[in-house]
Amino acid sequence: MFNPVPADDKRFHWPRQCVWLKLNGSWPLKSAKDFQSELDATESYSTFLYSLWSWYVILSVGVTIVYQTAFLITNFGDIMMTTENCCTTFMGALNFVRLLHMRLNQNQFRRVIEQFVNNIWINREHHPQVAHECENRMSTFRVMTILLSCLIAMYCLLPLIILFVDVGWNAPEKPFPYKMLFPYDAHHGWRYAFTYAFTSYAGICVVTTLFAEDSIFGFFVTYTCGKFRLLHQRIDNIISDSNELIRKRQNDNDIQRICEKKLNEIAYDHNKLIEFSNRLEHFFNPILLVNFLISSVLICMVGFQLVTGQDMFIGDYVKFIVYISSSLSQLYILCWNGDDLIQHSTETAKHLYGCNWEGVTLNIQNAKRLPNWHRVEVFHLTSIHPTNKEFRQNLQIMILCSQRPVKITALKFSILSLQSFTAILSTSMSYFTLLQTVYNADQEEDHSNNS
């Protein structure tokens, strides 16, 4: 497995949800150049087995989707059956695309991981406050993980409860985790047990891929935002830190050189953040596009089941409540993280402009506006030198560049932000209204025919 660790932080670890990416065959392996010569044969064999397992997972999810699609086509005229089937079919299709994308873009994923470890990760010992804030923000993904885990557990276990409590083992048609139509007799003997286990595990792969991939995406974005906060702190302190050299009796030219050097270092790190964000977008944007397209339909379908479902088994009702809660939370958390990245990136221009480049005279009133005002008495400063022309020109260029927000898009069609979240909800409500209108019209027609 490709598992790089920062050189200065041996306690680094990935989110626990990433274990499922490794179990599902989606985690990248080491590149060929990383293999030791004496382990080439062993590594090659392990790589082959891991790739084989990865394709098996993709195949099992694909086959399960085919079974669900066959049922969907057969019962297309029944709105209730169709919407219930679409809930699981579309969820499977979304994560089939995710699994396939991650399998076919292993090198890209590896480069994203490598750059994150080298340039983005925040060491808790060096920056405890920001690192702690990032860890706390990741707790939202744990909530999403719990909801989705409960969802797949209910899909896999409720049919078994119905089987043993209500239907019975000798029933001609037995329940499965999802509505499916098979090309063989899957309701008797060992074929039922095998098919149930096969499709259940496919569903587990679907859901675990969903929360694991979203968690690592959130992990990347959260720590990128943390890096922006650290960058803003450095920008705020650039002038006051450079003026500390007055204590060492350096002249104004030396201070200007230090200011320019610090600004160049900040510009370099800022470019690294932009480069990583662009790489992150390039890797995840096809997945996000499919996610956006399917989420609006999924939320509509699940909401329709909750509102119109009559004589629904209490377990199914709870299942759909968990379903819509997990779908909404998954979509909101993604959009919230994308919006946070936009906010942090655009704040950079404000910090650059307010870094005191023009120089001010320090006294007890205006010194408190500066980040390190409490150190003024230590330095015995009466004034801060204005920056030179070269510094101001470089600063102006950085401000212009920083005014363009760093954002993650869904293949350039939509921006990952809270505005996109509200737009998807609005689209879902439109679909829901249309679907309910069609359903009510069918109900009235059936009622008139029966009369």
UniProtKB/TrEMBL annotation:
It is found in: Cell membrane. The chain crosses the membrane at residues 53-73, 146-169, 189-212, 287-308. One of its GO terms (molecular function) is odorant binding. It is a multi-pass membrane protein. Interacts with Orco. Complexes exist early in the endomembrane system in olfactory sensory neurons (OSNs), coupling these complexes to the conserved ciliary trafficking pathway. Belongs to the insect chemoreceptor superfamily. Heteromeric odorant receptor channel (TC 1.A.69) family. It comes from Glossina fuscipes. GO terms for cellular component: plasma membrane. It comes from the Eukaryota. Keywords: Cell membrane, Membrane, Olfaction, Receptor, Sensory transduction, Transducer, Transmembrane, Transmembrane helix. This is Odorant receptor. The keyword Electron transport does not apply. Pfam families: 7tm_6 (PF02949). The lineage of its organism: Eukaryota, Metazoa, Ecdysozoa, Arthropoda, Hexapoda. One of its GO terms (biological process) is signal transduction. InterPro entries: 7tm6_olfct_rcpt, ABC1_TM_sf. Its main location: membrane.
